[in-house]
Design goal:
This protein is an alpha/beta fold and 442 residues long. Among the domains are: 153 residues, 3-Layer(aba) Sandwich (Rossmann fold), CATH 3.40.50.2300; 144 residues, Histidine kinase-like ATPase, C-terminal domain (Heat Shock Protein 90). Helices cover 53% and strands 18% of the residues. It contains eleven helices and 15 strands. The longest helix has 99 residues.
């Protein structure tokens, strides 16, 4: 942007000198002044502005107050004390936070104030009016300085009546505009307050609805707990009586078995013994599930779980090899039943099982636990069938139940052995395991 204009160009457009040390604010002023049809010069401070005024006479100076080298007050005073530059109108851009700002503006004979932050259209209108009144002011010859005392300090006001009137009107206009803005903000605040009151009422209604829903849920939970307690009481009493009956039946069966002499009758009694044994096993499994209903899920060390289970087979003659990382698993006593059932199946169906390997491999997706025996193994076409309900002889729920239990932990199980022995692989997801070093018991 050129700092000088040729004569023809100057006659066509009014020149405004913008004095502003902030490049961002200066560019903003230049942009909309050019758009409004003015020629624009820019100075970064008062000293630079005075130099530009000697080169090209602007029609108006628009200056910030706080600047390095020479502030806006000093610039205005210098302009107004020089007869050659005195006719140039000077507008001060100010925050106007104190009445002293008005007095200091009158002291330096400023022509007007524009309060920051300013409305662009208001600034353009003010510039247009001041330039238009410039010629009226040039015709005013009377200028009587006066002294005033404000806030205990004496000030000398050399401004003309025209300048004083302009500044007072400008100050009044600013006060009116601020009052209108405050009134507008007050109305917006009232509207916002009404909206907030409405939201509060709606929130109160929602709180009441939520409280009613919580009360209903608590009532339902209480009813479910009562129903559960009734079922548990009935189950406990019934199971106790059933167990006594089963014990008596088993006793009578043993007497009949030992006193039987007819071979055909012995075969039937032997089958009855197997059925009574299976019934006893199922009875104990149901006891386990009833116990698990009263136990909480918690983080438990996997090596300790495996060692406790192995100790239950101390008299079986089996050799156990364990390779388990130091991890904890989120579970209850049903997981123990999974491992116990698999080892028990190996003893009952693996025939010549003498050793069992239990190892676990940890990965990003979780942990894979392998239980491998050295028995006869499982045929390939039976590897999936063994997990179906009622498969095989005298198996009850067996491996079907094991798979269903693992689903509760989002886990899986499959058989991956060979003729060298059975190998069950249990996968538990990473959400249910932690490294023991990161585990802090509750």
């Amino acid at each position: 942007m050129a700092d000088t204009r040729d004569k023809t160009q100057t006659e066509e457009k009014k020149i405004v000198l913008v004095v502003e040390d902030s490049k961002t604010q200066a560019e903003q002023l230049v942009f909309f002044l050019l758009d409004a049809g003015y020629q624009v010069m820019v100075a970064a401070n008062g000293v630079e502005a005075l130099k530009k005024v000697t080169e090209v006479r602007p029609d108006l100076i628009l200056t910030d107050i706080l600047m390095p080298a020479m502030d806006g007050y000093e610039l205005c005073r210098t302009i107004k004390t020089n007869p050659d530059t005195r006719p140039i109108p000077v507008i001060l851009l100010t925050q106007l936070k104190d009445p002293i700002d008005v007095i200091r503006g009158l002291e330096c004979e400023a022509d007007n104030f524009i309060m920051k932050p300013y409305d662009e259209q208001y600034l353009l209108n003010r510039i247009e009016i001041i330039i238009a009144n410039k010629y009226l002011q040039e015709g005013e010859t009377m200028q009587i300085g006066i002294e005033i005392i404000f806030a205990g300090k004496k000030y000398y006001i050399p401004s003309s009546r025209f300048q004083i009137l302009n500044i007072l009107l400008s100050t009044y206009e600013v006060a009116v505009r601020k009052n209108q803005e405050l009134q507008s903000l007050k109305e917006e605040l009232l509207i916002a307050n009404d909206q907030l009151s409405l939201i509060n009422r709606e929130l109160g209604d929602n709180v009441e609805e939520l409280a009613a829903e919580v009360a209903t849920r608590k009532k339902v939970e209480g009813e479910l707990r009562l129903a559960y307690d009734k079922i548990h009481l009935m189950s406990s009493v019934t199971r106790h009586d059933m167990f006594n009956t089963l014990t008596a039946l088993s006793g009578y069966h043993e007497i009949a078995y030992h006193e039987a002499t007819d071979p055909a009758f012995v075969r039937y009694v032997t089958k009855e013994r197997d059925q009574i044994g299976e019934l006893t096993r199922l009875f104990h499994e149901s006891s386990l599930f009833l116990k698990s209903a009263h136990s909480d899920m918690k983080w438990r060390p996997l090596p300790m779980i495996i060692q406790d289970i192995i100790s239950n087979f101390s008299g079986s003659g089996l050799t156990f090899t364990v390779d388990i990382p130091d991890i904890v698993v989120y579970s209850d006593c049903l997981l123990d039943h999974v491992f116990t059932n698999i080892i028990d199946n190996a003893i009952r169906h693996g025939r010549s099982v003498s050793s069992i390997l239990i190892r676990a491999v940890q990965s990003d997706t979780g942990v894979s636990i392998e239980i491998q025996d050295d028995g006869t193994g499982i045929l390939e076409n039976e590897r999936e069938a063994i997990f179906t309900r009622g498969y095989g002889k005298n198996t009850g729920l067996g491996l079907y139940l094991i798979r269903e239990i693992l689903k509760l932990y989002q886990g899986t199980i499959h058989e991956a052995g060979s003729s060298q022995g059975a190998r069950f692989v249990i996968d538990i997801p990473s959400d249910s395991i932690r490294n023991r070093t990161d585990w802090y018991p509750e």
